[in-house]
Amino acid sequence: MKNDLTPKQQQVLQAIKRFHRENGYPPTVRELAELFGQSSAAGIHKILQVLQEKGALRRGESGKSRSFMVMDDLLGEDKSHRARSCPIIGNVVAGMPQLAVEEREGELYLDSDWVGQEDIFLLRVRGHSMIDADIRDGDLLVVQMTQTCRNGDIIIALLEEEATVKRFYKEVERIRLQPENPSMQPIYVNKDDPNFRIIGKVKGLLRRY
Amino acid sequence: MKNDLTPKQQQVLQAIKRFHRENGYPPTVRELAELFGQSSAAGIHKILQVLQEKGALRRGESGKSRSFMVMDDLLGEDKSHRARSCPIIGNVVAGMPQLAVEEREGELYLDSDWVGQEDIFLLRVRGHSMIDADIRDGDLLVVQMTQTCRNGDIIIALLEEEATVKRFYKEVERIRLQPENPSMQPIYVNKDDPNFRIIGKVKGLLRRY
DNA sequence: TTTTTAGGTGTACAGATGTTCATATAAGTG
DNA sequence: CACTTATATGAACATCTGTACACCTAAAAA
What we know:
The structure is a homodimer.
Chain A: H1 7-23, H2 29-35, H3 42-53, E1 57-59, E2 68-70, H4 71-79, E3 83-89, E4 104-111, H5 112-115, E5 120-124, E6 140-145, E7 154-159, E8 162-170, E9 174-178, E10 187-190, E11 196-208
Parallel strand pairs in A: 3-5
Antiparallel strand pairs in A: 1-2, 3-4, 5-6, 6-11, 7-8, 7-11, 8-9, 9-10
Helix pairs in contact in A: 1-3, 2-3
The structure holds a DNA duplex.
């Protein structure tokens, strides 16, 4: 049933793709109607509904303008296959509710073997404070955003508004943060310390020479 | 003047590209503002105007929704080709004319930003001999196969049937191979030494925790 | 210091846009 | 013929969206 599109429905799909390709953004319903020389948007609108039901087209929430996603085009992303885009964050900032977009400095495609389906970002390391963990200034850490850490995990923690890399150990009533550098003393924090917050755990490292 | 974008302006461009890639259609001004945690659309709107003046962004006629065209995107970077497959080699073996396929232990997709169009493979590091270069056992080195090295390049060389990582320096009549570890002595070889062969240069490092 | 620049907030408004409804036409079907 | 399906029209409506204006803040420049 899915692929049983009428000629007109196929033409509409093609028109959306073509418009998007030529203009860089998808058309509106009225622009589509105009392309077909129709004076009303309602006809196209109905066709679009059918296309959605048949699974040939996806749209954003109702009411969103130009929010077309031709499923065909999605298969293009499938070509990049195992690759997933991950944002590069220059700096972990204090008040991150989700992830401060202001600090985004780019993106990189990573193998999904590495990043899985999790919520991943790349953190640019500043300074040489982690040199004992064989982590250098300028390296990128692959960070999975999570609150659930297991003992021994390397985590990114926000301590006094500053992001640091530590090993995580949960003790009876507190948390021990063990620096990678054995000559440095561990830090102890209370689980509910407002100055302490776990951003995520480190899953990998990328370096460029 | 064109490329003189403030950090924020670059971030806005990145955000548009990312939104478009993830959703299939460009964002609205307000959606952008929301991404940045801003409560008003006017600030973003102003930035968008600047981006247009600087030529980094094109838009449809005034009033058209979501009509963004990031100039970068137009430069035909085939999104589906942003990822490239690179073989993982467990071991550099002696008689490699090309690359011993038998030693292949897998493959990984890497961002073409990183690997370019060159002939790239990934070499699994064995042992702790390079720990002073902040390279660990189990790390993957991104290696570009080439014979042309410049002074200071980190290279993979085959010495006495064994692969090592060294810094490359060409001297008058010989080549100096400087270990990453400063406490180790450099090795000198003749350019035509049959026991010596350059496999390629190290362009990056991948580590998994 | 004053001035400029880059950005941000809040409000407001006009036009763009998706959506719905009632209605119509033509083609195919039983 | 009546009945369904696919499509088109025109009007009406609720939001969405881009844009403008006034005003504010912080940092950099003069």
